[in-house]
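Summary of Year 1 activities. Much of the first year was spent building the evaluation harness for sequence design. The harness presents a backbone, in tokenized form, and records the residue chosen at every position. We chose the following record to illustrate the format because it has been used consistently in internal testing since the harness was completed.
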């Protein structure tokens, strides 16, 4: 069976921090072996062996006593750095992406290119919740479109503050949230039914993620299996804005006005 040369070469590069350091050094400018030895703090023998390995793979050539990357060597360098960036991104956004995928939110991978992530931690378990509350409270004067799998006093108070400052709110919730709202947050439910600037829709399907949309900003909230907000991604990326608008409109299209649901019960 033929060996997978690409995989072998990737393992070769990643298998030694010194190889990576030499590749990065040569990406900046050509170097003589002695200069490389000083830059990466490796022995002359180690540097020579690695340069020989790079030459075998056609990643470098020697000209006028200095080693320089070939075009293919430059591409290997750039691809490796891109991979490291993606691994770092996966580490930072991993829980957010996993929780959204768990509930079938269909969040686009390209939406992780840009944005600000607030994540709950052991030291600050309410970080994501607090950030969403800040965004809702500051939405006075804006048209707000939101989706929520939970109802809390913090959300209700923030929404009331935004409405007092001229916001209009469209909200999608599921039937579990309706039951909790009626049982525990009667005044807030009454306002949702009577306020001309508030439209609440109830979807028959359970909602497993949160969404806040106003002006040119979207905030996507990832909840864990116990419906605790764990991560909040704020983004102005058109990819995320388009996804958020599409998700909201799809939910509204199959939802029932809150007034009708309350009248039925």
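For this record, the design step produced the sequence shown next.
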């Amino acid at each position: 069976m033929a060996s997978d040369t690409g995989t072998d070469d990737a393992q070769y590069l990643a298998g030694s921090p010194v190889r990576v350091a030499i590749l990065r050094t040569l990406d900046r400018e050509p170097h003589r072996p002695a200069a490389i030895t000083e830059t990466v703090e490796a022995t002359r023998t180690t540097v020579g062996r690695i340069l020989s390995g790079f030459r075998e793979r056609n990643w470098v050539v020697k000209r006028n006593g200095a080693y320089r990357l070939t075009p293919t060597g430059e591409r290997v360098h750039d691809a490796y750095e891109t991979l490291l960036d993606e691994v770092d991104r996966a580490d930072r956004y991993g829980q957010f992406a996993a929780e959204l995928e768990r509930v079938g939110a269909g969040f686009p991978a390209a939406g992780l290119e840009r944005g600000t992530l607030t994540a709950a931690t052991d030291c600050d378990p309410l970080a994501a919740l607090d950030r969403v509350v800040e965004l809702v409270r500051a939405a006075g004067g804006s048209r707000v479109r939101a989706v929520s799998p939970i109802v809390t006093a913090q959300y209700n108070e923030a929404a009331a503050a935004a409405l007092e400052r001229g916001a209009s709110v469209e909200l999608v919730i599921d039937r579990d949230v309706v039951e909790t709202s009626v049982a525990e947050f009667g005044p807030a439910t009454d306002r949702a039914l009577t306020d001309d600037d508030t439209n609440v829709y109830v979807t028959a399907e359970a909602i497993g993620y949160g969404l806040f949309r106003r002006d040119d900003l979207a905030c996507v909230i990832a909840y864990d299996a116990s419906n605790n907000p764990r991560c909040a991604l704020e983004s102005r990326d058109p990819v995320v804005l388009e996804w958020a608008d599409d998700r909201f409109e799809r939910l509204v299209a199959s939802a029932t006005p809150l007034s009708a649901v309350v009248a039925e019960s």
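The longest helix spans residues 71-102. Quantitative recovery figures across the full test set are reported in Table 2.
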